[in-house]
What we know:
- With about 250 residues, the protein is mainly beta.
- The chain is about 5% helix and about 70% strand.
Amino acid sequence: MKKLNLSILFSLLLIPSIAAAEVVIINGNSWSYEINGTIRDDSSILSQIDLKNDLKLKDNDDTFLVAYIEHPIPLIPNLRIGTTSLTFNGSGTATKSFTYNGTVYTVSDNINSQLVLDHTEVALYWSILDNIVGFDLGLNAKFFDGKVNLTSAAGNVNEVFNETVPLLYAALQFELPYGLKLSGDMSYISFDGSSFTDSVIKLSYTSDYNLGVDIGYRSIVIDYEDTTANEFVDIDISGTFIGVHLAF
């Protein structure tokens, strides 16, 4: 219900931005990323699961898409909409014993693993500076559709989670000669000892035909702990990307 209410609120706020649109930019990217980190749903540190060493999750290539809708009206926010696919698969033999979601896995168990962190996002932002140097501030909401699947003779785990993460949003751009632009953006929140960061830095070239290319680096860092529910997540997903964009 919380996710639905937030989605409705953002949808209502989008209407003025879309109606007043003056510039639309569509950006598609191929992202080569690696994953590092641990998860745990038990109070004991001995049940900490290393995503690579224990679950054998492999680095991957996937896509993320972003669209920007901007306009000249000062009080109405601009709009950024994005979608990111993140799927990790692994298969191998456990090198230690651990417990996850009530299932005990022991040394030598063969485990097939999958972690999915797909999400969409909607950001409303205002252009504080819009010249050779650009600076944007706003709010972002990420809507996660994720799952954790563990399959072995010891038992199967099929955990699905749908979470909404509200974040602060900031972006900085520098116009360079010859159609080049250096830019970066960050979505961030910190609460109760937990934090979420999604940051991008990229170099872009746009031709006279409003078609361009991008090369950059993206990093998603999730540091979450809930001592009451015994849920602990420490994940870093980072890597380079290359993309194309079209402005009209």
